[in-house]
Fold each of these.
Amino acid sequence: MLRPPKSKESSKPPPLKFPPLTLATPELVAKYVPCTMHLSVLPPELACRLYYAMLDHSESWQRNKWWLFDRVVESPHRTSFFVRHSSLADEEDAQEAAQFWYNGRPTPPPDYFPPEMEEACRYIERVVNGELRKRERYPLEWGGDPDQNEEAASKEKIIWKANVAASNRYEGGSESVGFHSDQLTYLGPYPTIASLSLGTTRVFRLREVVPTDEKDKRSARTYNIPLPNNSLTIMYASCQERFKHSIPPQTVIEPFHPAFPRPGEDNLPADFESTGHITPAYNARINITFRFYRPDFRPSSIPKCLCGVPCILRPDMKNRYTQEEKGKDRSLVQKYWWTCYAGAQNDGKGCSMWRVMDVKAEGRGPFAGNTEISST
Ligand SMILES: O=C(O)CCC(=O)C(=O)O
Ligand SMILES: [Fe+2]
């Protein structure tokens, strides 16, 4: 068969592919991805108490359901959502919190942080703010004071404060979550998300989405971060814009023995003599992601699509530059889209709603930096 001669373009060797890299230490995590990992982040007794509390609480958690093409899919793990008590200053805010939507359907009013989660959150906020003070900020990050009344704000700048948390329970090695980046609808652009791991160690997988115009120069690399009990992974600005993350299924997991018995449980496990473990083995991993829902992305400010459902905010992960933007720093030309999300529930049928977010026209901010170039 005759083939046209190969053009110069197609004779270029394909970009090098690198094997997946395991990032097993905080140093390696910080070196390769826009995240940090903090080991033994909570006092061990609190980590243990929170694990037990969440195991009990998770008996009532749901598996999320949504439409994918022509079938309903169910998430292969259970989840729940919490609002922080102090974050709901007045009745209006409480009403708004009850109106949060998930996967294109209204969710029942969320629970408040249980006391153990509140206690853990204070430790985590300290770690997150300590790290954020060391980092350079992206222009579109939140630039306001998340808590004007905090006395400590004058001494140690508080940049980030959690006001909601999403929680996941993965039973055994088969429960998982597929590759995704977190929806930015209420978080806004370049969010910081603090993710606490309790229980069985599972691998957190990150994969970069290579921008369209760099595809022929480099390939995406996969990073595997084993997350042990009582570790905190902070995903910083650009992680949701540049990377997808997942918790892949695992054929083997190591059973987890909490350091302390359940309160009120005095009996040693039957196999204590042979194993030396003072607590039984657990197979569940609990994950809690502490998040800051920005005041300038409150539910009432989210545009609705033609179906009457709040849009979702997504970053253009492939970063399609316009001609004038070519060569500019990616963070200055990052675009976000408001799109219809009704399709996730409504028999897979959504509408054509699609709009570039215009932070200026939509009156959003204040931002951490100059947004003149970023706003469209
Ligand atoms: O379980 C984890 O560590 C990740 C959970 C997650 O990606 C999410 O809730 O969006
Ligand atoms: Fe996520």
Amino acid sequence: MTNAIAVLGAGKIGEALLSGLLTGGRRVDDLMFTERHPERAAELTTRYGFRAVDVPTAARAADVIVVAVKPQDIEPLLDDLAPNLDRGTLVVSLCAGLPTALYERRLPEGVPVVRVMPNTPMVVGEAMSAISPGRHATGDHLSIVEELLSVVGMVVRVPESQQDAVTALSGSGPAYFFYLVEAMIDAGILLGLPRAVAEKLIIQSAVGAATMLAKTGEHPVTLREAVTSPAGTTIMAIRELEKHGVRAALLAAIEAARDRSQELGRQHEDG
Ligand SMILES: NC(=O)C1=CN([C@@H]2O[C@H](COP(=O)(O)OP(=O)(O)OC[C@H]3O[C@@H](n4cnc5c(N)ncnc54)[C@H](OP(=O)(O)O)[C@@H]3O)[C@@H](O)[C@H]2O)C=CC1
Ligand SMILES: O=C(O)[C@@H]1CCC=N1
């Protein structure tokens, strides 16, 4: 088991990872982070006991460095990290779009890099994370990352060439489900239900549907057909969804997210 882990940029995803590792049995003394704002650092130290450090300390003390800043903030962070990093330290990037080649160009020769696309259900131990090795990452490095992330959800290995698509599907995916739930609650309001009732009905329906998908092994089409009675209510709703192009909208939306992930990577091609 790796010992010390440092998260550079403890925002939403960084905090979710650190708190999940703590819950999963990691020693608090082995978990550290860097943050831009002292108030945010103090908040995390008070809430969990994690140690706030600077980049040189993180680079010296950690076996695994997890980069969790926004892709737009990567350049100054790599400037700080490069002169301090030991070539044996494993670097794990959670950043959308950023290729392992960017890290390999900017960090000491031979540093192993693993690219990960997680998602926010990490907060409740239900993340979906996809991991890909960079040029110097071995099977052992992938196993280390798998072990780390399996504490906060499921992990799959994918070739790095698929990471932009993964980002569009599961990285952003929770947002699409939240959007759908939000719209369905609005529909309840339109039909005159109290908001609290509409919320309860839709959230439990979402939990039930997700659990059926995860546990029955049935295809989503089979599950949907089981709800759709001849000349019943559901088919009337499905006709409207098709008429309004919801399926085509999802295809276009996810393609746009994939394109944006590729673009974020290209923005750092010369870095
Ligand atoms: N949110 C999500 O659903 C997912 C996000 N990701 C990826 O994870 C990464 C983080 O996303 P998210 O957690 O949402 O973003 P956040 O903005 O919540 O977290 C990033 C944090 O890093 C801080 N920061 C920025 N630069 C530095 C620096 N040089 N040193 C220390 N801290 C710094 C930011 O401070 P400040 O507030 O000042 O900006 C912020 O607190 C992104 O690259 C994103 O693509 C991946 C999968 C899902
Ligand atoms: O919207 C984003 O860019 C990040 C990456 C995946 C989910 N959130």
Amino acid sequence: MTSPAVKIVGVGLLGTSLGLALSRQGIGATLEDQSPANLRLAVDYGAGSISGSEPDIVVVCVPPDVTASVVTQQLRQHPKAIVTDVASVKGQISKAVSALSPADHSRYIGSHPMAGREKGGPSAGRADLFYARPWIITPDSETKPEALDAVRDLALRVGALPVEMSASEHDEAVALVSHLPQLVSSLLAARLVFGEEGQLSLAGQGLRDTSRIAASDPNLWVQILEQNSVAVAGLLKQLGSDLAHLSAAMEDVAKPGALAEIHKLLTAGNSGVSRIPGKHGGKGSSYQIVTAVIEDAPGALAALLTFIGEIGVNLEDINLEHSPGAPIGLVEMQVVPEVAALLSEKLQANGWRLV
Ligand SMILES: NC(=O)c1ccc[n+]([C@@H]2O[C@H](COP(=O)([O-])OP(=O)(O)OC[C@H]3O[C@@H](n4cnc5c(N)ncnc54)[C@H](O)[C@@H]3O)[C@@H](O)[C@H]2O)c1
Ligand SMILES: O=C(O)C(=O)C[C@]1(C(=O)O)C=C[C@@H](O)C=C1
């Protein structure tokens, strides 16, 4: 299969990650960005180069509010290319592209990799960002079959799992699985503003798990939420009603039925979470966790990671926790199940303490 010539417009988190992932597959993308500094940084990181051949496919990775106009510009600039975008909302962008360039609409196809981070910009880019993540593709009745094939091929090349649906089905689905979670995380973390420093220093993994995405870029999210306001508002209403029931039960736990109400909500949470597929498509997380104890001292983490690199183990994820007042750190490492036993054995044999 010959490699397509790819152009990426917008080299922040998504554009740089895509360039890095393609580069691993031997495809050198052409990069463009309105910010000269971001462009230079993405090139320095190895995401692609500034000039290249005429593209077969252009991937627009800019903020949602300018996506439709940049797509239109690219359709005009490259009259033979397929153009896609990766914006987190699809309906309004598709309608705007259709209105701005009716003659070229069949060469445009919306898409959205369900992969991201709470940080933006080229320096946040990761070559493995798309690995085993759904990459939603939203053709409509006018889309050329070649456009669908080209985006499906691109997603597969970077290890993502292409999924097809309409733009409106997409927007409804991501309201539930992405937009509502962002708002809930932000609302929760916003409460922390009122906590005392001493209280916050006690935070464990629960708070970290539920608040990570509260660090996301408000400018980006305002644009996403504006374009999917109807679906998100509907879900917020239902959540508000759940909250009202919970508050009433919590206000008077002695009232008959109150504990049952609270139990019902917690049980519904269990049912909901069990429906989230793991990173590799199974139920729950498919990784195993190995936790090592390190000294809370300069160089301790580096020594551990260097050792793990030397024994050839790849970490899928890592989390570092400090116990307040104790001179140790807990390094929680996620690995594929096949290497968990080997990692534990080698660490212990070389003097590392595990918990
Ligand atoms: N952040 C995520 O987790 C995530 C995940 C999936 C999809 N997305 C979508 O990907 C797109 C990019 O998000 P990001 O997180 O990479 O943002 P980012 O802020 O990291 O990067 C955006 C880049 O676009 C450039 N840009 C802005 N306007 C431009 C224009 N008119 N022409 C050329 N370049 C322009 C900026 O200079 C910047 O380098 C958004 O549409 C977002 O909805 C984001
Ligand atoms: O994990 C994160 O930090 C994300 O930003 C991921 C996430 C998501 O909700 O899954 C956020 C928005 C994007 O449109 C796609 C992916």
Amino acid sequence: MQTTLKIGTRGSPLALAQAHETQARLMAAHGLPAEAFEVVVISTSGDRIQDRPLSEAGGKGLFTKEIEEALLAGAIDIAVHSSKDMPTQLPDGLELSAFLPREDARDAYVGKAAKTIADLPRGAKVGSSSLRRQALIRRMRPDLDVVMFRGNVQTRLRKLDEGVAAGTILAYAGLKRLGLDHVVTDLIPLDVFPPAPGQGAIGIETRIGDRAVEKMLVAIHDVPTGQALACERAFLAALDGSCRTPIAGYAAIEGGKLSFAGLIISPDGTQSHTIELQGPAQDAARIGTEAAGTVRAKAGEKFFDGWL
Ligand SMILES: NCc1[nH]cc(CCC(=O)O)c1CC(=O)O
């Protein structure tokens, strides 16, 4: 009898879409039926905490803790994640060993009366709980009222319908995976809203040394996405000292060449520092680390602890 590969995921509609995309790619790559895989839904602390900003409750790890425990315990064989939500430090024994081809990494504006942020009336409310997006909105339009917006993509869209805010910003990738891209009223250029490291890329976490699983994943791993992610995650890891400093970073790969653009910005949007660096895609991690060193030197150490 064939053993089934257990695919662990959160239960949000986006997480489920990502788990099913992974399953479909594995089926196609290996000529296996759906029954060769089982999608196992795991509830995480991040899903349960709804009353305060996650950056206060403990940060990124909240969406992965219970899933990683299940992976280490052998209750699941792979865990499918939004790479953007993954801490740079994983628990001992686990690694991100494969990435699916990256979806469009841009942020999207979803507006009601006004179709773009630029068209909003003075003082209009824009909902976002991301420190990076809040800072970028304030940089662009210091007059706007940035309000907290928690919950999954559907919850945020419902809040818009209820009139809680005039608009919100969501990852275009997530909306596309949910078949909700028709709600987008403006796609924001990468240089106006540089994305969070990892945005748009599905990452697959495995137990280090699980050769059978690694062999299966090679067939669905996208090499350029893996290189882009190595660069962006190295940039993030080298700057991660404070989770209160918004960090953006995006690496584009073309013909074996990597072009990285990074940004750090004060939460009020008034101060920011950028870095651009190119090099061979094989040197992805080194480029990310070097970019972090350069932008850190430009900004000065004070930049990272001044926002509490
Ligand atoms: N923090 C939630 C989250 N994590 C990943 C995505 C979108 C999908 C992706 O970036 O791959 C989202 C929603 C959003 O930012 O709109």
